[in-house]
Known about the structure:
The protein has 341 residues and is mainly alpha-helical. Helix content is 56%, strand content 4%. The protein contains 17 helices and three strands. The protein has helices at 7-15, 22-32, 36-39, 50-58, 63-85, 106-116, 127-133, 170-186, 195-207, 210-213, 222-232, 236-245, 251-263, 283-294, 299-306, 310-317, 320-339; strands at 137-141, 150-153, 161-165. Strands 1-3-2 form a three-stranded mixed beta sheet. The longest helix is centred in the N-terminal third of the chain and has 23 residues, at 63-85.
Amino acid sequence: RRLGITQGALSRIESGSLGLDDSGLKRLTGVLNYPASFFRQKRLVYGLGLVEVFHRKRQSVGIKALDKVYSLIDIRTNEISKMLKGVELGAVDVPCFNLEDYDGDASEIARMVKAKWRIPHGPVQNVTACFERARGIVVPFDFEHNSIDAISHWLPILPPIVFINKYIPSDRLRFTLAHELGHIVMHQKSPTSEIEKEANKFAAEFLMPERDIRPYLADLSIEKLASLKPYWKVAMSALLKRAVDLGEISDRHGRTLWMQLSKSGYKIREPMELDIPTETPTLLKELIKVYIDDMDYDMADLAQLLNLFEDEVLSVYLDKSDHQTLVLKEVDNILRNHQNP
Length: 341
């Protein structure tokens, strides 16, 4: 209605069988808040990969909502691809393993990844930093749905990218990122019907390695779980499940502790005083900083590069310091032009 066309015409425009004249394109840019250049892009649009197909099946989110999420992720991925064309990120050091070569043992693959990245024994201090050192990109993302924690993909021309829910607590973020790393490492070529269980097993071993954590899991209580959380940097619930899975406590003892967690409200929200410091991704910010500091891009340049309006560049990609730098550049340019007309 806002475009002044019929649903049938809109459908033909979306499918590419009908074009838009200049006035129609101008109306479209106003309705959707994207510049005309956004709609004139010529690029490959990638569909769902194998892992994403399984992810789509397991989510309780409706198909239309998921379509919107995947479309926005496609847009963000294209923008990141544009930025990477002008900057040398370095070689990706994220390995791929075939589960069949390891008898389907996701824990063994988690140990292989940690060995490759030379991660010390004990708790992983910063999962995000480990992934970014291997040149994976973590993108904080608003899924508009609490039931989606993250979606990852690895396109042929790009490093692996994890879009992670920006609103989840840090302990859940760490486990979610380790879970998505498991998908990236194990399921790119041959996902199984058990990919979620395998990714969870990978994450558990990655964050709570069996050899290191066993001595900590004996004689568990709610108080002990609370004391272990800041050290291992995982949720109390994750520690409890690990103890049950490793047989360090009985199923009966585990059920008792689960009920105590539930009664205390800790299954919904664990005590705030036990919150783990937030892990902040830096690689994408560093990429943008290269354009601002080294390539002397201003806001208009970034908007043109990404085929966005400036307000979206600001809200999606720039933090306060980046914005201040760009404002100072614009003021400096104005002063120079005033002095040298």
